[in-house]
């Protein structure tokens, strides 16, 4: 890698303490010029989106997450007012909770139990981990982000005896996501058995009029905050979804918003070589041949950014993973994202990256500041942070020598501003990339199929339970149960359901503990 090539492709934004290095993606000299007309179309589409166009045509919705960090940009004055009111409400709630004016049955709230999934959990989890400091935080955040009973129990165990000082924040844009509904019901049951009134310890963040909104209203929860239809779940970190938990934790939400606003301003530039989001989208296009031919490995060399790749996984994959383009052609688009943190991953999968199947490009994130305070020397004149940088630079070169390309994002420190910037950078890069490949980044039709199939499985389970009750004591095997139910085509599903029911003492007995498909089942 020549110094000339590096400096030519190193974009620095000094006012943001931010740099992007694309010199290790081997695009040829003509690539940027060749892509420029498409990029100009992407800028136009983005400008229309920010001005309030129906940028999500399938759902007939505006896409307004950029207005959240500069409410004056919202296309209607009522929206500006709503955004500002919501922010004021968040600040006020946090102030009252921290002062103890708004308290739980057993005193000042010291924990916050966030109940949500997908975009209603990943952002809050990432930010809490990136910016939290258990010694300084005003509240500790805990999460129910699944419908796994054991996962729920693990979280509840950490809150044992403290539910009277725990504020539950139930987050669901649609207000009808089953996992979140279940989490809420499990939390309600736990509060009840602890003798604590859940409603007086709960806040809902959801769309107006949703099921969750109605439950929160009718049960008299502490308050409700809005989720607007023009903010997608995966771009909601800087809406109440992310800001309320962060404010409760004691994080500087205004600085996070300011960081995002500054990155938004920088990425509105239509001068491609100065626009980091445009360059990122173009590098993704080049590296993946505009069709997801390679995966994106996200490697932050900073433990605090470990959850960023998980957060990006949803942002990128739910946005870009689409069957059809905007003209209805089958395209099966997407970019797979995975990663954890450097240098830890060096001792896990970097072996394959260096020498194995060549199906990825890397996005390194370099953080200049090591830690608060000084470091000891672990070798003569060398600190742990020196090692961390050494491993990043070494890995990057070792990969590049073997034809494995990479991008590096450099920030000086993991601050609230930097976290806001990173979120805004990738949000816009995803939007640009979607334009380059002509897809709708703002809907998620594919998730519906799994949800519908799950509902039908639960329907079959109810039928099995009724049938076995009716035939209590009779020994039946999977095939005969399927026949009785007239569901022969679902015999395998019935086998799976019976096995789990039997494993959980739900009245159904399997004669063989490690039951084979032929095993007999009966109802006690
Ligand atoms: O906030 P909600 O409506 O509960 O949805 C949670 C998540 O579920 C999804 O709709 C996918 O099923 C995501 O897009 C979303 O972030």
UniProtKB/TrEMBL annotation:
Catalytic activity reported: alpha-D-glucose 6-phosphate = beta-D-fructose 6-phosphate
Annotated catalytic residues: 318 (proton donor), 347, 451
Top-rank taxon: Bacteria
Cross-referenced CDD domains: SIS_PGI_1 (cd05015), SIS_PGI_2 (cd05016)
Enzyme class: isomerase
Any one GO cellular component localisation term in the record: cytosol
UniProt-listed InterPro entries: G6P_Isomerase (IPR001672), Phosphoglucose_isomerase_CS (IPR018189), SIS_dom_sf (IPR046348), SIS_PGI_1 (IPR035476), SIS_PGI_2 (IPR035482)
Subcellular location: Cytoplasm
PROSITE patterns given in the database record: P_GLUCOSE_ISOMERASE_2 (PS00174), P_GLUCOSE_ISOMERASE_3 (PS51463)
Pathway, per record: Carbohydrate biosynthesis; gluconeogenesis; Carbohydrate degradation; glycolysis; D-glyceraldehyde 3-phosphate and glycerone phosphate from D-glucose: step 2/4
A GO molecular-function descriptor: glucose-6-phosphate isomerase activity
Xref: SUPFAM superfamilies: SIS domain
Gene Ontology terms: biological process: gluconeogenesis; glucose 6-phosphate metabolic process; glycolytic process
Pfam families named in the record: PGI
Keyword line: Cytoplasm, Gluconeogenesis, Glycolysis, Isomerase
HAMAP family: G6P_isomerase
Family indicated by similarity: Belongs to the GPI family.
Protein's job: Catalyzes the reversible isomerization of glucose-6-phosphate to fructose-6-phosphate.
Protein name: Glucose-6-phosphate isomerase
Source species of the chain: Coraliomargarita sinensis
């Amino acid at each position: 890698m020549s110094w000339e090539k590096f400096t030519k492709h190193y974009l620095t934004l000094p006012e943001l303490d931010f740099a992007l290095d694309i010199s290790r993606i081997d695009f040829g000299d003509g690539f940027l010029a060749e892509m420029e007309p498409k990029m100009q179309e992407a800028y136009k589409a983005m400008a229309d989106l920010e001005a309030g166009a129906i940028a999500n045509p399938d759902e007939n919705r505006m896409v307004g997450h950029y207005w959240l960090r500069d409410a004056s940009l919202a296309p209607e004055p009522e929206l500006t007012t709503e955004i500002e009111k919501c922010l004021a409400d968040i600040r006020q709630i946090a102030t009252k909770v921290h002062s103890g004016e708004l308290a739980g049955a057993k005193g000042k709230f010291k924990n916050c139990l966030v109940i949500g999934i997908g975009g209603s959990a990943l952002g809050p989890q990432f930010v809490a981990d990136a910016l939290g400091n258990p010694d300084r935080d005003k509240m500790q955040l805990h999460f129910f982000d699944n419908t796994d009973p054991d996962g729920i129990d693990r979280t509840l165990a950490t809150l044992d005896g403290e539910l009277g000082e725990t504020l539950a924040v139930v987050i669901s844009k649609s207000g009808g996501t089953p996992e979140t509904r279940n989490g809420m019901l499990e939390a309600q049951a736990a509060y009840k058995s602890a003798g604590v009134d859940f409603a007086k310890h709960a806040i809902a963040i959801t769309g107006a009029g949703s099921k969750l909104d109605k439950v929160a209203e009718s049960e008299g929860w502490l308050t409700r905050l809005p989720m607007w239809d023009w903010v997608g779940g995966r771009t909601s970190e800087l809406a109440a979804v992310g800001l309320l938990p962060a404010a409760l934790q004691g994080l500087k939400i205004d600085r996070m918003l300011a960081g995002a606003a500054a990155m938004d301003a920088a990425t509105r530039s239509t001068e491609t070589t100065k626009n980091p989001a445009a360059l990122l989208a173009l590098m993704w296009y080049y590296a993946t041949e505009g069709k997801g031919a390679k995966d994106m490995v996200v490697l932050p060399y900073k433990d605090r950014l470990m959850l960023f790749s998980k957060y990006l996984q949803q942002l990128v994959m739910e946005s870009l993973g689409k069957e059809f383009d905007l003209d209805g052609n089958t395209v099966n688009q997407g970019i797979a994202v995975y990663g954890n943190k450097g240098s830890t991953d060096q001792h896990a999968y970097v072996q394959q990256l260096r020498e194995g199947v060549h199906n990825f490009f890397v996005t390194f994130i370099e953080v200049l500041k090591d830690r608060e305070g000084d470091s000891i020397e672990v070798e003569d004149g060398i600190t742990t942070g020196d090692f961390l940088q050494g491993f990043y630079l070494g890995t990057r070169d070792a990969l590049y020598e073997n034809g494995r390309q990479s991008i590096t994002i450099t920030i000086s420190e993991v601050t609230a501003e930097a976290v806001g910037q990173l979120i805004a950078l990738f949000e816009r890069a995803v939007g640009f990339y979607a334009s380059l490949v002509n897809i709708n980044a703002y809907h998620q039709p594919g998730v519906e199929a799994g949800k519908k199939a799950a509902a039908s499985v639960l329907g079959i389970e109810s039928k099995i339970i009724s049938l076995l009750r009716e035939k209590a004591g009779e020994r039946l095997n999977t095939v005969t149960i399927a026949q009785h139910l007239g569901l022969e085509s679902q015999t395998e599903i019935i086998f799976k359901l019976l096995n789990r029911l039997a494993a959980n003492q739900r009245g159904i007995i399997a004669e063989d503990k490690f039951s084979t498909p032929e095993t007999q089942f009966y109802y006690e």
